[in-house]
Amino acid sequence: MAVARLAAVAAWVPYRSWGWAAAPVGPHRGLGALLALIPQRAPRWLPACRQKTSLSFLNRPDLPNLAYKKLKGKSPGIIFIPGYLSYMNGTKALAIEEFCKSLGHACIRFDYSGVGSSDGNSEESTLGKWRKDVLSIIDDLADGPQILVGSSLGGWLMLHAAIARPEKVVALIGVATAADTLVTKFNQLSVEDSGRKNCISLHSA
Predict the structure, then answer these.
(1) For the whole model, what pTM was predicted?
(2) In what order do the strands lie in the sheet with 66-71?
(3) Are 98 and 51 in contact (CB under 8 A)?
(4) Residue 41 class from Cβ within 10 Å (0-12 exposed, 13-18 middle, 19+ buried)?
(5) Which residues form the AB hydrolase-1 domain (predicted)?
(6) What is the pLDDT of residues 12-22, one digit of tens each?
(7) Judging by DSSP bridges, how do beta strands 74-81 and 146-151 pair with one another?
């Protein structure tokens, strides 16, 4: 099953301010084990198991509107951050949502600007702009503490978001996080390429 495979490769990093010990991850540990360790901030309930998420849009006056789907549930919530040009309807995103439904936890999945159902032009996208997308989701849609699940390039954006919003992010789960690959590729660019408008942006635009 997709969730079982995902749990087997996931790794999470708690924040010091919460004082939790790191949990080893293996075939029998993962997101479920992490959620079990986190103190509940709401009574256990399971109505979310049969909920259906509908397409919504986050309106941003000076930035492209973001398409998202939000599943209501208990805290902490889960935000899935997809990989490069990946959609919120991908296999991993749907598996995460189904897993959250089974436990009654809140979940948000979304499309980056210029990708999928969101507004914007993918040819004008940079990591800086997508970083702002992730922060918009955290700031404007997420309720309470959140666990970020970043896949591939989304793992790099997950790390940036966690640094920018330490008060809201309680744990990280990286799925084939592409941070090392991204930095290597960036360092291999020539001086001319690194200064171009459409080059990879490591920081906020």
Answers:
(1) 0.70
(2) 56-58, 66-71, 105-110, 74-81, 146-151, 169-175
(3) no
(4) exposed
(5) 78-180
(6) 444 333 333 33
(7) parallel
